[in-house]
Design goal:
By secondary structure, the chain is an alpha+beta fold. The chain contains 10 helices and 9 strands. It has helices at 106-117, 132-146, 153-172, 184-201, 208-214, 219-230, 234-252, 257-263, 269-280, 284-292, and strands at 22-29, 36-40, 45-52, 54-59, 62-67, 71-74, 80-84, 90-97, 124-127. The N and C termini lie far apart (42 Å).
Length: 308
C-alpha cells in the first residue's frame, strides 16, 4: 500500500480497538467544546453523519453547511475543521479509518482505492439523502454504529466499510480524475508546516515571525494564508490551540490554574483566565468546579468562540 502514514498530521488517530484501524464515535458540539474542532489533517478517511443540529465543515479553503440527515466524506490528508453553524448544540456520528483497511490486494488498491485517494479534484463529497448512492453511504454509517457493541464488530465493520467505499468509488466517478494545477497547493503546504510548528512549540513564547518562518513565507503572506484557510490570524489560531490544550489539562489533571496556564504557553495566569473567560464565559476555576459537580456551564458559553 503506497498510501502510508507520513508523520505529517497533527496527531495519530486513536482507534477503538488497537491494531484495527477504525475509529467510530458519536459526538456532540456543546458549550464545553466551544462548538468547534480546530484545523487538522490525517491520513485516515473521514465520514460524518449529522443526527441533529447544523454545522459548518471547512475543507482546505472551501466551506459547506450540513444539517440533520446529511453527511460528508473527507479524503485523506485534507486540512479540515468544523464548527456549529448557529451556536447551538448538534450531534453527529464520526467514522475514521485508514485506507489500508480497503486494500485486500495490490490489485484492489490500484483499481478501487488509489483512484479516489489521489484524485486532487475530490477533497470531499457532501452526502445528502435525496441521492440514492449518497443515502446508502449515510445508511451504512448508521448501521455501522448499531453494530459497534457486537463481539463480531471488526468483521461487520469491514463488511460495512467496504459497502460504503463501493458507493464512494462510484460517486467519485462523477468527478474529474485529475485537477488542473492549483496555485493554492503551495500555500496549503506552507500552512501545514506552520501548524505543525505551532503544535510542537505552543508552550513556548512564539512570535508571528517565527510562525511565518516555519512556512518559509513572509509575515504578510502568513497572515493571508491563515485567514484564507482557518478564518483566523496566526496569533488567534495559536491562542485557540493553547486554550484547547489548557482545557485538556483542566479536565484531565489536578494541576493548578497557574501551572496549566504556563504549560499551555500563556504568559501569566491572569492573562490565561481573561482569555478563557472570553471564550468559555467563566473562569478556569469555575469551569473545573462545574465539571466536577456536573453542573451546566454559563449561558455565555452557548455561542461560538470569538477570535481571541
Amino acid at each position: 500500500m503506497k498510501y502510508k502514514r507520513s508523520g505529517s498530521k497533527m496527531e495519530d488517530v486513536t482507534y477503538n480497538i488497537p491494531d484495527f484501524p477504525v475509529y467510530l464515535c458519536w459526538g456532540e458540539f456543546a458549550p464545553h467544546t466551544c462548538y468547534r474542532v480546530l484545523s487538522h489533517w490525517h491520513d485516515d478517511l473521514e465520514f460524518l453523519y449529522m443526527a441533529s443540529g447544523q454545522l459548518f465543515y471547512n475543507i482546505n479553503d472551501q466551506r459547506v453547511r450540513l444539517k440533520a440527515g446529511e453527511g460528508i466524506f473527507v479524503n485523506g490528508r485534507q486540512l479540515h475543521s468544523t464548527c456549529s453553524a448557529d451556536g447551538s448544540d448538534c450531534a453527529f456520528l464520526c467514522l475514521l479509518f485508514h485506507p489500508t483497511l480497503l486494500c485486500s490486494s495490490p490489485w484492489v488498491e490500484q483499481k478501487f482505492v488509489l483512484p479516489v485517494l489521489e484524485n486532487q479534484a475530490l477533497p470531499f463529497l457532501v452526502l445528502r439523502p435525496e441521492d440514492q448512492r449518497q443515502r446508502e453511504v449515510l445508511d451504512g454509517l448508521v448501521e455501522l454504529s448499531r453494530r459497534q457493541d457486537s463481539p463480531l464488530f471488526p468483521l461487520e465493520a469491514e463488511r460495512l466499510i467496504l459497502r460504503i467505499w463501493e458507493q464512494v468509488f462510484l460517486l467519485s466517478g462523477q468527478q474529474p480524475s485529475a485537477a488542473p494545477p492549483q496555485p493554492a497547493t503551495q500555500h496549503l503546504t506552507a500552512l501545514k508546516e506552520m501548524l505543525r510548528f505551532i503544535y510542537g512549540h505552543y508552550a513556548e513564547k512564539l512570535t508571528l515571525e517565527q510562525i511565518s518562518r516555519a512556512g518559509h513565507t513572509g509575515k504578510t503572506t502568513c497572515c493571508a494564508i491563515f485567514q484564507r484557510y482557518t478564518g483566523e490570524s496566526p496569533i488567534s489560531y495559536l491562542t485557540g490551540y493553547r486554550l484547547k490544550k489548557a482545557l485538556e489539562l483542566l479536565e484531565g489533571t489536578d494541576q493548578t490554574v497557574a501551572e496549566i496556564s504556563f504549560a499551555a504557553g500563556f504568559s501569566s495566569a491572569s492573562y490565561f483566565a481573561g482569555i478563557f473567560r472570553k471564550c468559555y464565559g467563566c473562569t478556569p476555576t469555575e469551569y473545573r468546579a462545574r465539571l466536577q459537580e456536573d453542573a451546566p456551564l454559563p449561558e455565555a458559553c452557548k455561542s461560538p468562540r470569538q477570535q481571541v
